[in-house]
Amino acid sequence: MNIHPLLARRTQGLRPSQIRKLNPLMRMPGMISLGGGYPNAETFALTSMEVVFKSGRKFQLRDGSMDLACQYGPTDAHADLKPHIIQWHAAKDGVELKGEQIQVLNGAQEGLHTMAYLFLDEGDGVALSEPAYPGAMAAFSAFTQRFIPIPLDAQGMITAELEGLLSKRKAAGESLPKFIYDVPNGNNPAGVSLSLERRRHLLQLASKYDLLILEDDPYQLIQLEDLDPLPTLQSLDLEERVVRLDSFSKIFAPGLRLGYASGTAEIIRYFQLYKQGSNLHTSAMDQALLAGFLASHSHEEFRALIRENCKIYRRNRDAVLAAARRRLPADIRYNVPSAGMFLWFEMPERFDAGRMMEMDGLDLGVILLPGSSFSTTGGLKNYMRASFSMISPEQVEEGMMRFARMIERERERTAG
Ligand SMILES: Cc1ncc(COP(=O)(O)O)c(C=O)c1O
Fold it and tell me: For 302-414, which CATH class?
């Protein structure tokens, strides 16, 4: 596909950094480099480090590996990490990426921002589900305010609605969105996953209307029914329209800020050009730790660890669902998420979740997130998001009782 008509005006001006281009050359054996302005490794304040992974296996950084972890590195990825990412991605998704199709990021969040930077001019549209992840809205709204909300149901984004909207816009000669953003597994906040049929339909629509898709998939492996995730949009894409964001936040550790974008070499090159000017590269130390983990744990071991962690989330989900069944009135509706960390409560239409939290949250000692935080239009006032990731089993019953009390108070306020 020709992405040039979709690029933002600012992106046309991105130029490669001459200094960054030299980075791989400077590391060639035998090279005498007077080129880079890097600090001398002898001056670094750290000499060695040992981390112990949950498996009990140890990983040490010292001498050359420590120098590499402390020094400036290449923009695309730490050299030790990239081959692991290629293998991990192939094993996980069945998609063989070439080196130039990967950009390591400071978490998927950086990918959301970068995508917006590269493609969105003021006034450009982005199609996304309603509700949507507020971090994506924040990243996009720095560049454009024009969101095209598409409702979702238990099967994820209602792609038939998207189709209706795109065909209407096209017939009316109105501009089309630059890309479609979706979280296909364990949607934050709605908890739903995009069905296989709709994944295919989304790709057909992207093809028909010549659009990109931004697949943001941090909950892909947070599967709560012990099933394999559905094929990724990227793996079903025959026209290279998908830019995919993978995150290690929910499967490794979020504080390390590790994720990666994958897509065509052309788009990833733009990611790199932008990163050269924004933060040079993702922390080499963090990347070295992940590389050390992937070198000392097989994919099966990593997947087994993730599956163990999913049991914690499943236990929490089931406890919250059971307490919700016992404690909440019948007119409060919610889904049973098969992936991710979220329950999405729909309350009677006259309810205002923002007011409920403001008036009663502190008093009753319970926090849920009001639906309007997830709306592109200031709607969804009668929805609440509950995250079950961190709740302890002892807190669940009391938490739902407090939520039920909050609901009663709102019912009294809005009665008549
Ligand atoms: C849907 C979605 N995308 C992206 C992110 C950010 O992930 P990362 O920690 O990889 O930046 C989150 C974090 O909660 C999320 O829920």
Answer: alpha beta
